Amino acid sequence: MTPEELDQLGIRMLLANTYHVYLRPGIDVVEKMGGLHRFMSWDKAILTDSGGYQIFSLARLRDISDKGAIFRSHIDGSQHLITPQSAIQFQESLGADIIMVLDECPSPTDTFEAIKKATERTHKWAEICQRSQTRNDQALFAIVQGGLYPELRRRSASLLASMGFAGYAIGGLSLGEPKVLTLAMVEETAALLPQDKPRYLMGVGSPEDVVEGVARGIDIFDSALPTQVARKGALFTRRGRYNIRNAAYKQVEAPVDSDCDCYTCRNFSAGYLNHLFKCREMLAYRLATIHNLSFMNSLMQRIRDAITSDTFNSFRDDFIAGYEPTDEKVRLAQKKKWLDAQNRKNINRG
Amino acid sequence: MTPEELDQLGIRMLLANTYHVYLRPGIDVVEKMGGLHRFMSWDKAILTDSGGYQIFSLARLRDISDKGAIFRSHIDGSQHLITPQSAIQFQESLGADIIMVLDECPSPTDTFEAIKKATERTHKWAEICQRSQTRNDQALFAIVQGGLYPELRRRSASLLASMGFAGYAIGGLSLGEPKVLTLAMVEETAALLPQDKPRYLMGVGSPEDVVEGVARGIDIFDSALPTQVARKGALFTRRGRYNIRNAAYKQVEAPVDSDCDCYTCRNFSAGYLNHLFKCREMLAYRLATIHNLSFMNSLMQRIRDAITSDTFNSFRDDFIAGYEPTDEKVRLAQKKKWLDAQNRKNINRG
């Protein structure tokens, strides 16, 4: 998607991964080219993550201590050290509007002891990150960890809240655990975070999860899901997710989603999209992406309107009643496949 | 590319391949969906070819007679018959603005006798196509064949010219022969085609060939080259074709082509494009495609302006002097590789 197109869709913030930019083209290159906004030709907001999540998933972790983490690139196997100090320094060079602390992101299946240790290290690193900040025009967000343990989550949230960050993220969720647990952890955590600061649920982005997240006090979400599934033909509607590659769409003259006024639905039949996907035309992936981003943006707008008019609870009930979510078994199997694929990359390249 | 985007680039006509549409999604499906214009949501001109070229290259030819050609689909190996009558019928159902006769497209390396026979059959089929036309709102173009034999080309051009078509195409060129021969054949042929009818050189589309083609009397070109090479990172400039994937571009802050005012060059550095290509981002292919289409469109505009102001000869001299074409040996090797790849598809699927 071009910046122009994202702007037309009403998108106001992009996320850039510090880990990916660090490896390619390099922080120094982007800095020399005038920072991320200029490099990407995007004059609206940018959020950079710290690299923590990728180091604990995509890269191959070699060693971790309170000082920092040594990891191998998933691209060429080269070895690198990241510290809380350098994570901030990198993000200052990139120049995003919102930057994130370096966190240790454990797997939800790790032991209580391992998750406790990772959470404590995350707190230490958060403090170092806060002290390392030299620019005053970037909002630094802390990240709550604690796995699936309510007591660790609560302690993490309270401690970080007391340290006075510009915003608070909830990390380490949506990593293969059942949705009911994800939402329970969000509920535990969000309640302890300051009312007057943005609360950001990392890596969550299905329509139903966004609605349920807002119901639990979340303001910001990030997720590759809407664009990722779009490229596989899965399109959001108010009734649920449908796959346009299904042969049933071949001769459908109506648009994919008759409630939608996005460029795709205004101009093309479901039959044409089905054809483009069968032919693996690049336009297929784009039109599907335009639709899903447009759907998410309009969902967020409807949520904001409902909050403003004090009708969010009935909006939520109506939405959830009308929306058939992806079957939980299928969803968990897909997530596992995706996490395994990440893992394989790691093993092959490490 | 979306219709909206093509429109912004100033593009006024698209080519659709009858062969491809016939196999997928099927002529009947497109007809039911309201014809090609509505199916693609494109309200400007469309040209459909007859399928002849693909049947003699991409598909596997099983049998040919004056009646028509039996071929196997390159997708699933299924067997089909196309006749001059059905080629017109299909194109009437699709509803393009310009339609083409069915021709037999021989290889330039075939014997004189084989090419002579193919050319004569092309003439017979042209006559049948002309008689088979039932719609009066589509311009039917004939196709001159004759391989690399000037006498066959001249006879084909004169004969078809006498039959009174709405326009005339030159087919069977740019199929791996040296450029000097392509241009010699164009020169022989174009001179014998009516002055007051459009002349269309099929499958030709590099910047230098377009300029040389116009110098020999050509009005219309079609080619996948500008978009195909764009997706591999090769970008046109007035000085020649450069590959943006080259590491030398990594830190270049200037746009790819400082003479260019396309969306890509107005907004992005060569360094950013280099980065997008390295990451295989879909945006890379799009930005490169936008640039090359914009370059070709502006080249055609400059050619039209030069003709109008009676300065085409000096424009041509300046352009050719400033433009370093792709090395002929490299070009022929690339072309051979491409034709072989087409052939392999054919063998694997046939």
What is this structure's SSE topology?
The structure is a homodimer of 350-residue chains.
Chain A: H1 3-8, E1 13-16, H2 18-23, H3 27-32, H4 35-40, E2 45-48, H5 52-55, E3 60-64, E4 69-72, E5 79-82, H6 84-94, E6 98-100, H7 112-132, E7 139-144, H8 150-162, E8 167-170, H9 179-190, E9 199-201, H10 207-215, E10 220-221, H11 225-230, E11 234-237, E12 240-243, H12 263-267, H13 270-278, H14 282-308, H15 312-322, H16 328-349
Parallel strand pairs in A: 1-2, 2-6, 6-7, 7-8, 8-9, 9-10
Antiparallel strand pairs in A: 3-4, 4-5, 11-12
Helix pairs in contact in A: 6-7, 7-8, 8-9, 10-14, 10-15, 13-14, 14-15
3D structure, described in words:
The structure is a homodimer of 350-residue chains. The first copy, chain A, is α/β, with parallel strands linked by helices. The first copy, chain A, is 50% helix and 13% strand. In chain A, the strands form three sheets. Chain A has a seven-stranded parallel β-sheet with strand order 1-2-6-7-8-9-10. In chain A, helix 9 links the parallel strand 8 and strand 9 (199-201). In chain A, helix 6 (84-94) crosses helix 7 and helix 10 runs antiparallel to helix 15. The relative contact order of chain A is 0.10. The model of chain A has no long low-confidence stretch (mean pLDDT 94). The interface between A and B is medium-sized, with 32 and 32 residues.
